[in-house]
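Reopening: Acetoin utilization protein AcuC still failing for me.
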Amino acid sequence: MSGDVQVVWSPALLGYDFGDGHPMAPLRLDLTMRLAQSLGLLEGPGVRVVGAEPASDAVLQTVHEPAYVAAVRAASDGGAADAARGLGTADDPVFSGMHEAAARVVGGSVAVALAVWRGEAEHGVNLTGGMHHAMPGAASGFCVYNDAAVAIRALLDAGAERVAYVDVDAHHGDGVQRVFWDDPRVLTVSVHESGHTLFPGTGHPRETGGPAAEGSAVNVALPARTGDAGWLRAIDAVLPAVLRAFAPQVVVSQHGCDAHVEDPITNLDVSVDAVRAAVELVHGLAHEVADGRWVALGGGGYAVVDVVPRAWAHVIAEAAHRPVDPGLRLPEEWQAEVVARYGRRGPARMTDGADAAFRPWAAGYDPADDVDRAVRATRAAAFPLLGLDPEHD
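Support: Ran it again with your exact input. Result attached.
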C-alpha cells in the first residue's frame, strides 16, 4: 500500500456558497487551505493535492433519489425552490450552480475513498466534505448531497465488506446513519451534543440500527457544555472498543469542529487541542484496525477565523504523518490575509493552551457525572449487540 495522502482541493470547491450571512461560509475553507499551504503541509514527499470533478447523477443516485437530484438541478438552474425537499429553506437556500457545487464535493470524497481502497493512497482528506445531514430525498442542515454516504457506498460497490463511519461533529450524523440503518456492512459511530438541545434532534443511545443490522449504529449523546475532559473521555470510552469489535477494512471519519467552545451555533466547550487529540486517536485506530485505510472529511465548524483553519490544518498534518507543534506561531503571511479580510489578526498559535487531558473509562464510572451517564447509556445499548461487555470492554 502507498504511504501517500491525497488531499482534495481546488478553488472551484468554494462554489458551495449559500450566500452572505450564512454560517457555512466558504471563506473557512479558503483560510484553512491557505494556512495548510503556509505551514508547508501541502508540499513535500507523500502529499498529493488532487482536484475534484462533480459526481455524475448515476453516482449521486447510489444514495439519493432520482427525483431529488432532478429537483436540485432544477432549483440551481433558476427553477423554483422545493421546501418539501429542503431546498429554499433558511438552512439550505437555493443558489445558482448549487447542483454542480454540491456534486463536486461528492466527487472529491468518492475519488479519495476509492484511491485509498485501491491502495493508491494510504489516507485521503476532503475537508470540503462531511455533509452528513443530507437525506436520500432532501437537503438538511446546510447539506445538499451526502458525500460521506456516497463515498461509503462507492467503497461497498468496489468490494469493501465492512466500513466504519466515525463522526465527531457537534451535530448527530443523522443522514449517514439513515442511509445505512439496516446495512450490517457499515458501522456508524457518532459522538455529538444531545438531540435534546441541538439539531437534528436525533442520535440517542437507543438508536442502534435496523432489524438486519442491530448494533451497527452507535450514538453518544453528550450534555451541553461538555468540555475537553468529558468529550475525549466519551470518545475513548466507546470508539476503540467498537472499532476493534467491528474490524472495518476502511475508516471514514467526519471531523466537524463545531464542538469548539467558540462555535456560534453549538453548546459544547471543546478546545482545538482536544479536536487534535481526537484526530490522532482516529488516525491511530485506522492503522490498528484497517491497515491504515483512512478517509478524513470536514463538516461543521462556524468560527471561521479562530477555529476552523487551525483544527483542519491539524487534520491534514496528522494524515500526512507530519503533526504540527501546537505551540507553533501561525505564519505572518496567513495573518496578513486575515487582517486584509477581517481587519484583525487571527489566533497566535496552533493551540488554545489546553492540555486535553481526560480520565480513562477504566478509572471508574461516576454516577453523579452527566457525561459518564451518557457514556454508560451508549455502552449498555450498543455494546452487547457487538459482542462487547458494557461493564468491562
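The two ends are 31 Å apart (CA to CA). If you still see a failure, please send the error message rather than a screenshot.
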